[in-house]
Model the fold of this input.
Amino acid sequence: MVEHRSPKPGVAGSIPASPARKEIMINKIKIFFEGVQFEMQKVSWPTWDELRGSTFVVLGLSLILSIFLFFVDFLLSRIASVVL
Done:
């Protein structure tokens, strides 16, 4: 007679996951979030003045870069239209 085996060892057909596996997964998730909370306490958050200053720097440089790229694109399109 031929022996029939499950394709995956440890899998017992259509039996749902055992409660022990669910408990292990819940414990892993709990440990993960405890680690996240611990690491978030070590973060040095910027003050509102530092945040405001950094925001202005990013917005200013983005504006300057967009104006520069506009003019480069404008010039290259004019050159391409003259050449073609």
Observations:
- Residues 19-83 form one domain.
